[in-house]
Write a structure and sequence with these properties.
The complex is a heterodimer of chains A (433) and B (189). Chain A contains 4 helices and 29 strands. With 433 residues, chain A is α+β, with helices and mostly antiparallel strands. In chain A, β19 (318-323) and β20 (330-331) form a beta hairpin. Chain B is 38% helix and 17% strand. In chain B, strands 2, 3, 4, 5 and 6 form a 5-stranded mixed sheet that branches. Chain B is extended, with a radius of gyration of 36 Å. Classes of the chains: A alpha+beta (433), B alpha+beta (189). Chains A and B meet through α1, β5, α4, β8 and β9 of A and α1, β1, α3 and β5 of B. β5 of chain A pairs parallel with β1 (45-48) of chain B.
Chain lengths: 433, 189
């Protein structure tokens, strides 16, 4: 009886030993190869000194193949996270099977191959290889119509960007702006790379400040029609326009709240320009500021808790911050005598604005007023706003005589003009998606 | 039997250590701020690339001018009130002009006055629209203080949108920083 019990206990202990030994072994192996457990990080985009990833991008074989490849190259190169290695150095013919031996000696870490086919309907088959692991990290088929070839290429670039950074790309976003054509001012929308410029057919000859809703389906702006500055709401889904603020005085569009159910704006309906919040459901208005001076350009923080705005209550136009109920007003900028046009970064940790340093420049600051940085140096630079991933800023500049729309990385690098030459453009605003 | 128990204990400790070590590794990974990576896609997936079309035929709102029954004077009978850079207070030297505007309005009781506020283009567009509004309002306030009925004066800002002068010179900027009077007289009178 006793031995029996001991025998049982012994067996129990032995099976326990086996199980734990096995578990330990599995754990040991899992720890040796963490990559199979956790996802691979190729580019740490949070690091300011991230090494550029050398990437080979073939001209895709088939209709529009070269055009698509060029767009992907331009997209990835502008991020400064990728370094495109010229196709002249590739040893491996496009049709040959991918072999890491062909790429390792060249120091290339990623390879994009693919083909296209079809005319009325365009299909692109894309494979992206990780040279180090010697395996594909992206295999995907894209289908579109030939007129959307640029959007197809941008979609491929987005997926490549996401495969290597873990973050969504912004290559299909747009920039809205105001431009003057034959003395008439109108709102235009173009791709972030300056292609496919489109004028929205709106009434009125004066227009200002286009602002997107957070979901990108709506826009508000100020327009002067019949001797009256009103605020208008454009619905991109229904393609209809509504006048939502028509009170007497100068009404200037500010911003949507994140949920899209309310807007903030500036109006002089009570005498002088003050900040208001209006619900888009019942059109009820709440007045947030009461000064005899100028209160303008309200912009809502991404979490919807604060409004940054411009006020001259201290004797010169400066950026201020308040809660969305108008309480807790704090001054953000102290340097310089003219700071205007604030706009939030998507994470709410930075405010970009126009700062006068002789001429108007683009500056960036923390909401508490710390870490002020000037990002531009030449010409007059205005209307800054962030890309939805917070990595880029669009703005207007007259550095090449005629005002145009520019983009740059959020640290001020890579400044380039994107709006059409000869078209006087300003009032830029990056779309949220 | 005792040794067997010890083996179990040692292995359990080892296992626990292994777990902690692995977890630490996982934490370090997460600390780099990276989100989950898309894993290798074994099966070929498809993406239909489309776009919601932006139609140029938007139902746009037409707004009628409330003063449409009034005709604008082509040339202003009153000279512009000019302002200092970034300022909106009316200088003393313009008070005689405003006096004559007020007298004229007193005699021409059916006329209305539109005051346009303008700016030079060195400021930013949106702030300038508010500044132009404030300039026109300052002039209106002065006229009201001289006895002109407030409802006979409307104010509109054009900011830097309608410059009088297009050069980048001090002379030109000074001309653009103005409040401009437009006399509106009833049509058919």
């Amino acid at each position: 009886m006793r031995t029996n019990i001991i025998g049982h206990r012994h067996r129990d202990i032995m099976s326990c030993v086996t199980v734990i030994t096995l578990l330990t072994l599995i754990l040991f192996i899992a720890c040796l190869f963490p990559r199979t457990a956790a996802a691979k990080v190729y580019i740490d985009i949070t690091s300011p000194s991230a090494k550029k990833l050398p990437i080979a991008i073939y001209d895709l074989q088939g209709p529009s193949g070269k055009e698509i490849s060029d767009i992907i190259r331009d997209d990835l190169s502008f991020t400064s996270l990728f370094m495109y290695i010229d196709k002249a150095s590739y040893i491996e013919p496009l049709s040959d099977k991918f072999s890491q031996q062909n790429w390792k000696p060249l120091g290339i870490e990623a390879v994009v191959k693919g083909t296209t086919r079809g005319n009325s309907s365009l299909t692109a088959d894309i494979t992206v290889y990780d040279v180090f692991d010697g395996r594909p990290v992206l295999t995907r088929q894209y289908q579109s119509t030939p007129e959307l070839v640029r959007q197809l290429a941008h979609s491929i670039a987005n997926d490549i960007y996401q495969a290597f950074t873990g973050q969504p790309g912004v290559f299909r976003t747009k920039v809205a702006f105001v431009a003057e054509d034959d003395g008439e001012k109108g709102i235009y929308v173009m791709d972030w790379d300056g292609h496919r410029v489109k004028k929205l057919g709106l009434k009125g000859t004066l227009v200002l400040s286009p602002r997107w809703s957070a979901d990108g389906t709506k826009m508000i702006y100020s327009s002067e029609r019949g001797r009256q500055w009103g605020i208008y709401l454009l619905d991109f889904v229904k393609m209809t326009e509504k006048r939502i603020v028509a009170s007497k005085g100068t009404n200037i569009a500010g911003d949507f709240f994140p949920k899209g159910d309310a807007i903030t704006y500036s109006s002089s309906k009570d005498g002088t320009p003050d900040i208001y919040v209006m619900s888009l459901k019942d059109h009820e208005n709440r007045k947030l500021t009461r000064t005899q001076g100028i209160e303008v350009s309200p912009t809502v923080s991404p979490n919807g808790n604060h409004i940054a705005f411009v006020s001259d209550r201290g004797g010169s136009p400066q950026i201020y911050l308040m809660r969305t109920d108008g309480s807790d007003i704090r001054r953000v900028t102290f340097e310089g005598s003219y700071n205007t046009s604030p706009s939030w970064s998507p994470s709410g940790d930075r405010i970009v604005f126009s700062c006068r340093r002789g001429k108007n420049q683009i500056c960036i600051v923390n909401p508490d007023g710390s870490d002020l940085l000037q990002l531009t140096e030449t010409g007059n630079n205005e209307d800054p706003s962030f890309s939805p991933d917070g990595r880029y800023i669009t703005f207007s500049s007259d550095r090449e005589k005629i005002r145009g729309i520019y983009i740059m990385r959020a640290n001020g690098e890579g400044q380039k003009k994107i709006s059409p030459p000869g078209l006087r453009s300003y009032g830029s605003r990056w779309s949220p998606n | 039997m005792k040794s067997g128990k010890r083996v179990v204990l040692v292995l359990m400790v080892l296992f626990a250590f292994g777990l902690v070590a692995c977890q630490k590794r996982a934490v370090t990974k997460a600390d780099t701020g990276q989100q989950a990576q898309p894993q290798t896609m074994e099966k070929k997936d498809q993406e239909k690339v489309s776009e919601s079309k932006i139609d140029s035929t938007i139902e746009s709102v037409d707004v009628k001018d409330k003063d449409a029954q009034y005709a604008e004077s082509k040339e202003s009978m009153f000279s512009d009130i000019l302002f200092d850079y970034d300022k909106y207070d009316v200088a003393d030297k313009y008070k005689s002009v405003l006096q004559s505007v007020s007298s004229w309005m007193a005699k021409n009781t059916s006329a209305r006055l539109s005051i346009e506020g303008h700016c030079d283009d060195r400021g930013t567009n949106e702030y300038n629209l508010a500044l132009g509004d404030r300039r026109a309002k300052a002039v209106k306030d002065y006229l009201v203080s001289l006895g002109v009925a407030a409802d006979r004066i409307n104010v509109i800002s054009y900011g830097e949108e309608r410059p009088l002068c297009n050069e980048q010179t001090e002379v030109c900027w000074a001309k653009n920083r103005r409040a401009h009077f437009v006399v509106l007289t009833k049509v058919g009178k």
